């Protein structure tokens, strides 16, 4: 899963984390470990509009008028190391992307198969916000 900010501005990066939290919370029954690469589209498509609307509400409540879209499909990823424990080789993977506005900012990502998004979101908040605010 990728949540991609509108830009790299501090405000957009903080907004990205708020959108991430809201989407993961709203889709808790989807992101609870039952999502697999085989059933991702089947489970997410019926929830797509609801998750996008949740993201839009967060964006509006924070004073922005960005659009947001949720995309599901294969995407190419370079080699990634996850939480300093798991290295994923470069290749094409099934992905869920929440794209805020122009989607030109840094992204937050997590591994969905197996489910690692909720623990990653919970543990990264303080460190990532501290990094943003200290720049």
- Radius of gyration (CA) equals 14 Å
Straight-line distance between termini: 25 Å
For the biggest β-sheet, the strand order reads 2-5-1-6
Global mean pLDDT? 82
Globular, elongated, flat, extended or rod-shaped: what is the shape? globular
Give me the secondary-structure category: alpha+beta
Q: Helical proportion? A: 40-55%
| Multimeric status of the protein | single chain
Report the major sheet.
Answer: 4 strands, mixed
Description of the structure:
With 135 residues, this protein is α+β, with helices and mostly antiparallel strands. It contains 4 helices and 6 strands. It has helices at residues 10-26, 40-44, 48-61, 117-134; strands at 2-4, 68-77, 80-82, 86-88, 91-100, 107-109. β3 and β4 form a beta hairpin. The model has no long low-confidence stretch (mean pLDDT 82). This is Sporulation stage II, protein R.
What would the keywords be for this entry?
about 140 residues; about 40% helix; 4-stranded mixed sheet; single chain; alpha+beta; two-stranded antiparallel sheet
């Amino acid at each position: 899963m990728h949540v991609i900010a509108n830009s790299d501005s501090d405000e957009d990066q903080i907004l990205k984390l708020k959108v991430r939290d809201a989407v993961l919370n709203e889709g808790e029954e989807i992101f609870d470990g039952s999502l697999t690469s085989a059933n991702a589209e089947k489970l997410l498509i019926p929830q797509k509009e609801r998750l996008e609307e949740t993201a839009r509400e967060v964006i509006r409540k924070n004073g922005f008028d960005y659009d947001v879209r949720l995309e599901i499909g294969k995407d190419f990823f370079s080699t990634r190391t996850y939480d300093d424990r798991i290295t994923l080789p470069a290749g094409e993977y099934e992905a869920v992307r929440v794209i805020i506005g122009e989607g030109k900012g840094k992204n937050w990502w997590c591994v969905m198969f197996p489910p690692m998004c909720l623990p990653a979101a919970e543990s990264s908040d303080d460190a990532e916000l501290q990094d943003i605010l200290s720049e």
